[in-house]
Hints:
Blueprint lengths: L4 H19 L7 H27 L18
Helix pairs in contact: 1-2
Amino acid sequence: MASGWSLIIGLIFVVVAAVLAWIFSPKGENQAVFRSTLILSFTCCYLMWAITFLAQWHPLIAPKRSDIRPERVPQ
């Protein structure tokens, strides 16, 4: 089962990838575009993964069983 450390570890990987993209981006007139594209891509992928992970980890709506009678459901 996944834990809260998954978010921290994923964030560390994204920060390391962003730093590496900043350092090793090819030099030239499009260096700023290349850097920002990579860093924004890493950030957006991490945010999408984190939102999906948290939505599955703590769902807003509790699942309901359909195989029991409504009068037998504890309140």
